[in-house]
Hints:
The chain is of the alpha/beta class. It is built from five helices and eight strands. Strands 3-5-4-6-8-7 form a six-stranded mixed sheet.
Amino acid sequence: MKLNRSDFIRLYNQPIYVIKDSNLSLVEEAKTDNYSTKLSENREIIGRMEKGILIITDEKQMTSEDETFLMKGLTALDVGKEDIGVFNHHEGKIDWKNLNGVNRVIWFRQQPEEQKLYKVHQENERKILIAGPMESIRTNQELKVRFWKALKLLFDQN
Length: 158
């Protein structure tokens, strides 16, 4: 298994120090980038959110199939992995509505309200898309079409 930079940062989200071996004195603190700063401020959100896009899931864990499906759709809309942050609402304790810098939200809910499903809602300066469980969308052609149309609306690409 090969670890990439973001995997390493998730494992080591504390400052890293370089120590001289002779007397073990502090030499310098390693520089942190935007990703690790945001991670240390909100440990429950994984990702850089460079474009202010928050993915919320009510599911216990996002599967690799779900992640591949989601990234395929987002990539088609010119959104990369570095542009999003992922928050597990099932386990999270932060109030995501008060997060700064979030302008678009995609929320995969286990039991969404039917009248809000696959529609883009405006809440203050944020656009919010509420969708059903990701596995349901991934495995149902009709739901895929509804999700894709709503996703394009969310990113102003009708």
